[in-house]
Write a structure and sequence with these properties.
This protein is mostly helical and about 110 residues long. Helix content is about 65%, strand content about 0%. The chain has four helices and no strands. The protein is elongated.
């Protein structure tokens, strides 16, 4: 009976030890040492991706196309210059929307 009691006490002690969370205590001044070991310098500048650069160039080209088409575009749907100008305006809006989404990091 003594062996069964000792075994029960041992199992209870093991169960209590397993249920307790170990306390992690970092050494004093650990955060300071880690901060001092990091290299000093400014963060790298953000680079433009090829997509952003291409969208910027496309916006400039579309804006120039609008200025070229403007004198020839009468407000009539039978006028080809007016139709092209509407398409260019829609494309410029789409490029601006894509650039805005890229800036927010959602695209």
């Amino acid at each position: 009976m003594s062996e069964t009691r000792e075994q029960a006490v041992l199992e209870a002690a093991i169960a209590r030890a397993l249920e307790q969370r170990p306390q992690a205590m970092p050494p004093e001044g650990f955060a300071v040492r880690v901060a001092l070991s990091l290299p000093v310098g400014s963060p790298r500048p953000r680079r433009w991706s090829a997509g952003k650069a291409l969208a910027g160039v496309a916006a400039v080209v579309l804006a120039v196309a609008l200025f070229i088409l403007a004198p020839h575009a009468g407000p009539s749907f039978s006028n080809v210059a007016f139709d092209v100008e509407l398409v260019v305006l829609a494309e410029l809006g789409a490029v601006a929307w894509v650039l805005a989404r890229m800036q927010d990091g959602r695209l």
